Structure formats: structure tokens, C-alpha cells
Write a sequence for this structure.
């Protein structure tokens, strides 16, 4: 437990510096700092797995999902450094994060789905599609411009909301009696909040205030570190 607390504490100490520097000016220094913070949630996952003495397919899927999150962080921030390849980096970020969510969903179903409860598979799929369509339809009311990223945004929304809805319905199916699953649901909620804020800074105007950066990264890293910490509780 102590090594996990140390890793989380280091991340908490580094995060304010990253947010401050990014709100001022962005260059490779900030990219390396963010990469270091993201690397820490992978370190946490590995330490948690080692300390739990359990290494299952669930651990593997979560760790790979976190690794993809690290790559996604790098891609999405490289677009601020290498502006000639902004479109490519943005698509790459969407794709790797989307695959990460698919792995999270797969891990949840394999570990927590109770056979015979088919509605707990069908209902989250339906709700995911509905929420994804709503997200795209709210483009103009929220003063966003998805532009060339509308299709990839919709596909990513399916992956993102899938993580949320499956963790919710599987928690309901298990009567909220499984702590790791309940914590995963909390992480999924934080991830959605983070990406909703991020969509405002990416596709909206006037939404790049310090408070937006703070909310975005606090919720995002909160989600990823929760996903990693869960591996200690299996």
C-alpha cells in the first residue's frame, strides 16, 4: 500500500506544475512533464498488481488500457508542439483512447457480468448509443465545432460512454457489493467529465481558462489512477 501512496503523491505534486505551465505556454518541457505523470499511473498499476498477488486477464486489459492512455496523452499534446501534423495526432489520440475504453469494457464484462442477465448488456449498449448521439446533436447549442472530427468524435463517444454505462449496469447487477467495480464506476464518471470539458477546449471558443485545464486534468488523472489502484483490491 505504501508504494502506491508514494506514486500517487508524486503525481499529485507534479500535476499543478503541468497545469500551470500549459496555461502559460506549451512546448516539449510540458510534454515530458505530462508524460511523466501519465507514466506514473502505469507504475501504480504494476505495483498494485504485484502487491495483490493476482495477475489475471483483467489486470492485463487494464494495464494495456492505461498504456494506451499514455500514448493518447502524448499524441494529443504533440499536436500543440508539431502543429503541421495536428490532424494526424488528434486522430491518433482519439483512436488509442477509444481502444483503451474498449479494453476497459471487455475487462468489466469478463470479470463482473453475471450470466443470464442479458439486459445488463443490452441496456448499456442502447444508453451508450443514445448518449453519443446527444453529444453530437448538442454541437451547436454548446457552441462547439467538431468539423472534420465529427465522425471520429461520435465513435469515440461510443467507447467513452460505453465504459460509463457498462460499469454502471454491472454495478447494479452486482447490487453495488463489489468495491473495485464501484470504484471503477467513479473513475468512469470522472473520465466522462474530463472528456466533456476537453471537448469544450478542443472544439469550442473561450473555454481555455485555467479552471478548464484544472477540471480537465484533475478528473482525467483521477480516473486513470483509480483504474490503476483498483488492481490492488482484486
Amino acid at each position: 500500500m505504501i508504494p502506491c501512496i508514494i506514486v500517487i503523491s508524486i503525481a499529485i505534486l507534479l500535476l499543478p506544475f503541468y497545469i500551470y505551465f500549459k496555461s502559460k505556454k506549451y512546448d516539449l518541457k510540458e510534454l515530458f512533464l505530462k508524460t511523466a505523470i501519465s507514466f506514473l499511473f502505469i507504475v501504480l498499476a504494476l505495483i498494485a498488481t504485484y502487491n495483490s498477488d493476482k495477475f489475471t486477464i483483467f489486470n492485463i486489459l487494464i494495464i494495456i488500457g492505461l498504456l494506451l492512455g499514455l500514448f493518447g496523452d502524448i499524441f494529443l499534446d504533440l499536436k500543440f508542439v508539431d502543429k503541421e501534423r495536428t490532424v494526424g495526432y488528434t486522430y491518433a489520440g482519439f483512436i488509442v483512447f477509444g481502444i483503451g475504453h474498449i479494453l476497459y469494457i471487455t475487462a468489466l464484462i469478463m470479470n463482473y457480468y453475471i450470466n443470464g442477465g442479458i439486459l445488463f448488456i443490452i441496456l448499456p449498449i442502447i444508453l451508450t448509443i443514445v448518449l453519443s448521439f446527444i453529444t453530437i446533436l448538442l454541437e451547436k447549442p454548446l457552441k462547439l465545432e467538431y468539423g472534420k472530427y465529427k465522425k471520429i468524435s461520435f465513435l469515440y463517444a461510443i467507447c467513452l460512454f460505453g465504459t460509463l454505462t457498462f460499469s454502471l449496469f454491472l454495478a447494479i447487477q452486482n447490487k453495488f457489493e463489489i468495491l473495485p467495480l464501484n470504484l471503477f464506476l467513479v473513475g468512469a464518471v470522472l473520465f466522462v467529465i474530463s472528456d466533456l470539458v476537453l471537448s469544450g477546449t478542443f472544439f469550442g471558443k473561450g473555454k481555455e481558462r485555467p479552471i478548464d485545464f484544472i477540471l480537465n486534468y484533475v478528473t482525467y488523472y483521477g480516473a486513470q489512477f483509480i483504474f490503476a489502484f483498483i488492481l490492488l483490491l482484486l
In short: The first helix runs from residue 2 to 24. Residues 2-230 form one domain. The mean pLDDT is 91. The chain is about 80% helix and 0% strand.
